[in-house]
Amino acid sequence: MKKHTVHLAMLVAAGLIAAVPAAQAQQRLVVAGYGGSFEDILRQDLFPAFEKQHNVKIDYVAGNSTNTLARLQAQKSNQEIDVAIVDDGPMYQAIALGFCSPITNLPAADLYPAARYKDDKAVGLGLVATGIMYNKKAFEQKKWPAPTSWDDLKDPKYKSVLVIPPLNNTYGLHALVQYARANGGGEKKIDPGFKVFKDEVGPNVLVYEPSPGKMTELFSSGQALIAVWGSGRAKAFADTGFPVGFVYPREGAYALLSSVCPVAKPKPSPLAQAFVTYLLSPEVQTKLGSAYGYGPVNKKATYTEDPNAAVQLPVGKAAQDLIVVDWDTVNQNRDDWNKRWTREVER
């Protein structure tokens, strides 16, 4: 009996010892979001602290918003992604398709109302303005005035030096909506926008480029001198030392709400919710403002706008004046518009 007891105790002890490494085993969290400078900031400045605190390895899947949404659709029966970071338009689609779970422990009192989504199934991560980016040095050398209007992109002097993202990118979509609105249409009447692109803007376009890395490469090589782009990416580019100019057009810049949601799945990682909360913390929000150029969504972020900065971020009045598109109408028509864009504009 005594021998049996000792043997049992040894087995239990061995089991406990074996269980310790399992309990401490590093977890894995899959995050999908933008590439380029945004990915660099996440990997260098934001992931390490979270990984260390939670003993987790973050696997990052880079791609634009439509790429990430397509991955969610392709994996809907067996989701790999735990957290998705996409633009506001695709996020509305992701929510409608059931890909997002409600966010728990949301610091609601600290957030600006514009950051909240219905039922808290997603939340804004940062505010971006879609406007016009240009090479200040090249413009000065050519004695060109800085652009001030969306209509400036029609100017023949920009032939083959203008870059615009395609329609499956939010920046390109914003441009299409703007030209529709300015010519008697809008989200519910998009034809005028297509006409302006085909007849007046399109002839100047060097390439319809969605890749952030390729965009900066085109500017760095001197092939591109002006583009439709976002304030965050423009700031990140300016921070490399490139002579970036960024304009809020007089007709208005457009609001892009970079957004994040925990992905709905049968066995979600508890760290998905923790990571979303982490991204909303004042410290991370401040970092995303200073390093990447997001207008913070957390009221407690301590980011202060530099009046001499090359790129002014959408904070204060600049944020209030941004134009918001009718995403319900856009998302109902976006597939048809994408096909039409390929057929008529990028033909």
UniProtKB/TrEMBL annotation:
One of its GO terms (biological process) is thiamine transport. GO terms for cellular component: outer membrane-bounded periplasmic space. GO terms for molecular function: thiamine binding; thiamine pyrophosphate binding. Pfam families: SBP_bac_8 (PF13416). Residues 1-25 form the signal peptide. It comes from the Bacteria. The keyword Cytoplasm does not apply. The keyword Signal applies. Keywords: Signal. This is Branched-chain amino acid ABC transporter substrate-binding protein. The lineage of its organism: Bacteria, Pseudomonadati, Pseudomonadota, Betaproteobacteria, Burkholderiales.
